[in-house]
């Protein structure tokens, strides 16, 4: 049997790549408009980065990472997300000595060993942005507004922005005790992962996907009701600034996010269209992460958006994508002499940025025209001995069916002008 892609991975084929190119380009434009610069980070990092960054007790680190020893015996992990790598790069490359804040965006693949379903894959793509060095609520709002503007620009409507605050390590300490107290008579009925988390990191119990555990969590205290004054003031500034810009939000006390680095603001944009996998993107503040990875204390906030989920959402909303580029002209040729002229002409047209296709299969004119039609070309031009002797050929507009005899000398200028 022919070899297939591994489960949870897929090819992005030529007939859909224009959709990807379109959102990639628009995302980069919006990020640059906010002053973000692109960063590219490695696909794999030392495992320790994610253990420390994403957190040892998270589902991602405990269950979902692609980890292996390389030939030198080092533990390596395919990145399950981008933030930890970006923060590592910020520290490693001395970006703390650049004018702050440092604003970075990325377009990456990420890898998680998850149960594969619609919108949930093992290799997937993320667009992300990270804002390092800014403490103010204005930074949280800037990060959210990149997304709001991006969705507006590409015509995605009706995503709901769910917002929460999960406080700082101080308020979380008190909350963890409260949560443990609430769970004390329930934990013996809960799964083994919850039992381990009960002592190590009680808040992570809120991530449990096991139905019987979830049932015990329905009346659990919400962290938002127990955050400290400083965190509350920050949250109020975030909501106030969102209201000022006019970005609607919904407060969702249940968002805890599946990564350990978050502090204060956490948020998700969700859709009703893509079912249970409705979270198109998520993010939040991570004021302790730079220090956790070995840098100086530096506040940070960012997001990542799942590109596959974004495209599913766009398709379900019936959003039209700009069409893939079609060739400007197909140069057909009959005979060897014409073939040589076509060769030269095609070269000249391409060097003038004209999207030009010619026969490279030695096919009959009829077959060449059939092929040109399938390529959806704008113009065709057929060269034979007569055309070369008279230096004239018939240019056919494939959209209107109109034909015109034109001098071969003017063809290039005419097409360049048409394209401008
Ligand atoms: P995350 O919520 O784990 O956050 O992932 C962000 C987005 O990636 C999700 O909302 C979803 O659209 C997409 N995604 C996650 N897992 C999968 C999957 N298995 N298949 C398809 N799409 C998926 C982060 O990754 C954080 N680094 C976000 C962040 C950046 N926070 C601060 N800065």
List the helices and strands and how they pair.
Layout: H1 17-33, E1 37-38, E2 44-46, H2 47-55, H3 59-64, E3 67-69, E4 75-78, H4 83-92, E5 102-111, E6 123-132, H5 137-154, E7 160-165, H6 169-183, H7 192-200, H8 211-217, H9 229-245, E8 250-251, E9 263-270, E10 279-285, H10 289-292, E11 300-306, H11 307-316, E12 329-333, H12 335-351, E13 356-358, H13 365-374, E14 379-383, H14 385-390, E15 392-397, E16 403-407, H15 408-419
Parallel strand pairs: 1-5, 7-8, 12-13, 12-14
Antiparallel strand pairs: 2-4, 3-4, 5-6, 6-11, 7-9, 9-10, 10-11, 14-15, 15-16
Helix pairs in contact: 1-5, 2-4, 5-9
The structure holds histidyl-adenosine monophosphate.
Histidyl-adenosine monophosphate (HAM) binds at residues 81-83, 112, 114, 119-121, 124, 126, 128, 130, 258-259, 279-284, 286, 302-304, 306, 308-309.
Main attributes of the structure:
single chain, alpha+beta, 40% helix, Rossmann fold, binds histidyl-adenosine monophosphate, 420 residues, 2 domains, 16 strands, 15 helices
How would you characterize the overall build of this protein?
This protein has 420 residues and is an alpha+beta fold. It is elongated. It has helices at 17-33, 47-55, 59-64, 83-92, 137-154, 169-183, 192-200, 211-217, 229-245, 289-292, 307-316, 335-351, 365-374, 385-390, 408-419, and strands at residues 37-38, 44-46, 67-69, 75-78, 102-111, 123-132, 160-165, 250-251, 263-270, 279-285, 300-306, 329-333, 356-358, 379-383, 392-397, 403-407. Bound molecules: histidyl-adenosine monophosphate.
């Amino acid at each position: 049997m022919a070899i297939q892609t591994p489960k949870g991975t897929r090819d992005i084929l030529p007939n859909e790549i224009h959709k990807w190119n379109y959102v990639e380009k628009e995302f980069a434009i919006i990020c640059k408009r906010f002053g973000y610069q692109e960063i590219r980070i490695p696909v794999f990092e030392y495992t320790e980065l994610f253990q420390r960054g994403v957190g040892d007790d998270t589902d991602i680190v405990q269950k979902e990472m692609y980890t292996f020893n390389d030939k030198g015996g080092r533990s390596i992990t395919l990145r399950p997300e981008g933030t930890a790598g970006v923060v590592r790069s910020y520290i490693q490359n001395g970006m703390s000595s650049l004018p702050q804040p440092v604003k970075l965006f990325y377009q990456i693949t990420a890898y998680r060993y998850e149960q594969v379903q619609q919108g949930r894959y093992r290799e997937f793509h993320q667009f992300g942005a990270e804002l390092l060095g800014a403490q103010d609520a204005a930074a949280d709002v800037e990060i959210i507004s990149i997304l709001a503007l991006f969705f507006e620009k590409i015509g995605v409507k009706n995503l709901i922005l769910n917002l929460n605050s999960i406080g700082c390590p101080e308020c979380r300490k008190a909350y963890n005790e409260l949560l443990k107290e609430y769970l004390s008579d329930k934990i013996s009925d809960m799964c083994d992962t919850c039992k381990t988390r009960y002592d190590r990191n009680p808040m992570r119990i809120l991530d449990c996907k096991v139905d019987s555990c979830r049932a015990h969590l329905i009346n659990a205290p919400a962290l938002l009701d127990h955050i400290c004054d400083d965190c509350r003031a920050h949250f109020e500034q975030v909501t106030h600034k969102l209201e000022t810009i006019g970005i609607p939000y919904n407060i969702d006390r249940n968002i805890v996010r599946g990564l350990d680095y978050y502090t204060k603001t956490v948020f998700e944009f969700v859709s009703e269209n893509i079912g249970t996998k409705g979270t198109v993107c998520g993010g939040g503040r991570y004021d302790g992460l730079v220090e956790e990875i070995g840098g100086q204390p530096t506040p940070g906030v960012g997001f990542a958006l799942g590109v596959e989920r974004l495209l599913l959402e766009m398709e379900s909303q019936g959003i039209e994508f700009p069409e893939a580029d079609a060739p400007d002209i197909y140069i057909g040729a009959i005979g060897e002499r014409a073939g040589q002229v076509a060769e030269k002409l095609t070269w000249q047209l391409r060097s003038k940025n004209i999207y030009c296709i010619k026969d490279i299969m030695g096919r009959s004119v009829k077959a060449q025209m059939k092929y040109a039609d399938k390529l959806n070309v704008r113009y065709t031009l057929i060269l034979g001995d007569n055309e070369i002797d008279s230096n004239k050929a018939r240019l056919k507009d494939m959209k209107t069916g109109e034909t015109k005899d034109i001098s071969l000398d003017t063809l290039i200028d005419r097409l360049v002008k048409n394209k401008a």
